[in-house]
Structure formats: structure tokens, C-alpha cells
What we know:
seven-stranded antiparallel sheet, binds 2-oxoglutaric acid, binds fe (ii) ion, ALKBH2, broad specificity oxidative DNA demethylase activity
Amino acid sequence: MSKRTLDGFLGRPTVAKKQRLSSTLSGNISTHPTYPFPIPHLGQELGDVVAFSPAEDARVINDQPDLDLLYFQPFIQKTIVDDLFQFLRSQLFFYRVSYKIKRGSFETQINTPRFTTVFGVDESSRFNETGDLVENATKKPIPKDRYKNCQPRPIPDCLDVLRKITEGCTGNRFNFCLVNYYKDGADSISYHSDDERFLGPDPAIASFSFGAKRDFLMKHKPDKDGAAVPPGSKPLKLPLDSGDMVLMRGRTQSNWLHSIPKRALKSGESDKGRINITFRRAMVVGGTENYYRYNVGSDGVVFKWDDAKKDMLPWKGDEKDP
Ligand SMILES: O=C(O)CCC(=O)C(=O)O
Ligand SMILES: [Fe+2]
């Protein structure tokens, strides 16, 4: 893997923060009929620095049974991670999804303990230049009933920039972008693996962190009889910081579980929000239906960051002039 850093860049960008944010917002925007509101492009100043990723070479972590990780600390230059975090938190739209699951004759309501959103479509389809869904292979319009329960959304430019860089430096391809927002230490994701069949065998998943530092815990799955994990495998704790990226690949998803546990607030922490972005590749229609069901949901309530209230609040539509 080649090391591309700002070293090769002619002079470090010394853009004043105010100037950087205003140029960010004056750039182009991504629009689509499925978006509740348009999403600005990153803007040149942030985009230029993001282009010089990864900031550091990856550490390979494969010294345990079935584990294969690349750990970039960081992947994104530290000079822009705060701005990038603020940008993504304030410009994306989120959902707080709840759904019912049936266990035997009991129905349980699950409230996802974090904000989520998702963009992308599986390998059967793609978005053409005008934003319409077409057959990936033939570029002809897809049958109207291909997606019965969701309306796939194209990955907006500000996230697609990151997707392309990630593809370039990992050699993997991605068609989905899932975003989690953990508003504080009470938001979490419990132990799971991303090993759904719609991802195909041994999927590679790239996972970015922005904002508050959180622990990423991993442990080997028990064997089929529920017996202890293979001898020699020890639980792992990666303290994910803003700008870090973990690539999980090979046999990792089929054999290991991962989580972001709840954590107590440390005193003096001013901003405890964290954004996680994962890039994945779904192979079939069922993957698209699944991702929109669990990351957008069906209650229609859109959340947007309110910078005055410093909170993710239900979005009531654009304020109209009186
Ligand atoms: O927030 C993270 O770092 C992990 C998120 C995750 O595991 C997932 O979305 O499947
Ligand atoms: Fe996961």
C-alpha cells in the first residue's frame, strides 16, 4: 500500500477556519427526489485534503484466528477531521428507527440506540447521470417493482469522494454507504457481525470514525455448539479516534463479532457526538431492502442537526419566508 500524505503536496493548506467552512457551503450540491433536502458537496478546501488520504499507512492486524484487519490511525488528515465531522453532522439527514421482531409468539419492539441513514443500491442496479435507476449490466430502466419496500438513494458527492478514495487504497469495491450518529455515550451498537448473505462470502467493510473517541470491541464467535472461542483468540479493543478507519476483511465477518458499547461521559468533554461511516458492497436486491428497512425505517421522521440547540431534532421542512 502506497503512503500518500500531504508531504508530496505543495505546501500545507493554511486556510482560516471561517474561510474553509464558507467555501464548503458555496460549492455544488447533491440533489435527488428521494432526499428530504439537498446535500452540499464537500467544497474544494476539504476535498483537496481528503484527496491526500490515507494520512498514515495501515497496521495489519491478523495475528488471531480468522481475523484480518487494516487499521489506519488516522486515514484522514487530523487538520480537517473536526471540520469534516461538523460538515457531515450538519448536512446529512438521519433517522431513529424502530421495528418489531417476532420471537416465537412474542412480538418485541426494537428501538435502534443511535441515529442512522443509508445511501446506495445493490449490484443489480445503478444510478445513471440523471439519477434514475437502471440495470447495472444493460443501462436499461429497471422493472418498476424491483424495490417494493424502499426507494434507493444515490450516495451524495460528499460521501462518494470518500468511497472512491477508499476503493483506490483498499482495492475493494463498494456500492453502499451506511452512516451512524451516536449522540453521546448512551448510544451504541451491540455485538453483531455484518455477514449477511446478500454481501457475498468474506465481505470487505471499511469503517470510518469522526468526532468523539469510542472503543470498538471485537471477540471471536463461539463455535457451533456454543463452546468457548478457539484457543489463542483474545477479545480486542480498538480506541477509534476521529479520522481513523478500520477495514474488516477476509474471514473476519464470518468469525468475529464487533460492537461499540455504551460508555460513561468523561468530565470536560464538550462534544460527545460520533459519526461512523461504513462502505459495503451488497450483491442482490434483498440487501438494498434490508439496509433501507433498518437504517431509514418507515415512520417518515427525518432528523437534522440543530446547531443552535446542539442536538439532532426532528426536521420540519425548510422554513418558508413569511
Ligand atoms: O460505529 C462503529 O464503529 C461500528 C458500526 C457498525 O458496526 C455497523 O454499522 O455495522
Ligand atoms: Fe457492524
